[in-house]
Amino acid sequence: MIKGLGSGRIRGAVLAATLAAGICAGAPSASASVSCASGWTADTVVSGVGNLENLDSDGAGGFYVTGILDGFFAHVDAVGNFEKLVTGLSNPAGVRVAGRYVYFLTGDGADVPPGTLERYDIQTREVTTLLTDLNGPNGLLLLPDGDLLFTTLGFHGPPTGIARYRPSTGEYTRTWSSLPLTNGLALAPDGKSVYTDNLTLRVFRIPLDDPNNPTVVAGPPTLLAVPDDMEATRAGELFVADHLEGAVYQVDTATGAACAIITGLIKPGALRNPPDGATSVRIVRDGDAWALYVTSMDGTLRRLRPPAGFDLTPADPRRWSENA
What we know:
Order of helices and strands: HEEEEEEEEEEEEEEEEEEEEEEEE
Helix content: under 10%
Low-confidence stretches: 1-32
Radius of gyration: 18 Å
Strand order of the largest sheet: 1-24-23-22
Oligomer: single chain
């Protein structure tokens, strides 16, 4: 690891920002991004727990999270109790809950061995390795048909795009979509496409039936960010975690317009090229309403509550019955 630059994932983002978007060479600073923070409130669920990379709801008011530099897979219960379930992992990244299992990835970094797809059994606490030799896996998404998509950043060879894995049969497609250097993933409201972003600093929509035909949803200069994981609402708003300003951006997927609902979620002492900021977002039940939960490399899991009247209902209908 190069001292002061965080994970290999961030160093790759720095390079992409310089070459692809020109943010470091004359473009307006990210701090000029439009703010739509009015009415949003933030509070802390848990803090001081390491460099949080990803999260998913446990369906009962708690969360499963990964700590990328700290090498853990952990659980945060509904009252904020934090428990490491698996330790000694190599740069764990994306995490998704599917019934009694939690799937998670390892190997998100340039200075670590090739990655794996792991399955954690909630009932027995057994961990099973499903795939090995992955090319810098990062974002993970559970599709409506039960398949998993995961992005790769290409740390151990040429970029391999987005992979698809079918847990029911073990079928594995290493390059389902050839879009390179991909990071976050989210299901779109139509259930027939997904959103992703990559290190060209753009957000894309990918049809599930035509994965090599992505279209650009947003990017510079409207969205000035180093985007990470994301989640969409049924109304078509996409919330994207950002490393550059430690922000969460609200993106109108119809127009590409973007604004920041919060900034400054940055690991203390991080260098601004870019710093280690917000990493993942999930929309989860919050009493009778919905809230946006955000992980950050500053070791904090936060809850962001929207303004009155804002429709934060998630795009994925499987979320609607969680913790209801």
